[in-house]
Amino acid sequence: MKFLDWYLKIAVVSALIGGSMELFMVKTGFYDKVTVLESEKRAWENSPEAQAYRDALNPWRHHESETRQN
User: Fold this and answer.
1) CB of 38 within 8 A of CB of 30?
2) Which residue segment(s) compose the domain that 33 sits in?
3) What predicted TM-score, i.e. pTM, was given to this entire model?
4) Based on the structure, what is the number of domains in the chain?
């Protein structure tokens, strides 16, 4: 346990930095913005337009399903 005090100092400084980052994110409304963006993203991913994009960008979609069935 030669460097125990050094490790404790690093742990305390890291906890302080992490706590200050969390406090900053809470005070600036970061989590609220991320929640809105994620809900919009999920709503779009489940839309028919997004499904059309996925189908158009994957020309092998039918070939893969046929291969699995055979």
Assistant:
1) no
2) 3-68
3) 0.55
4) 1
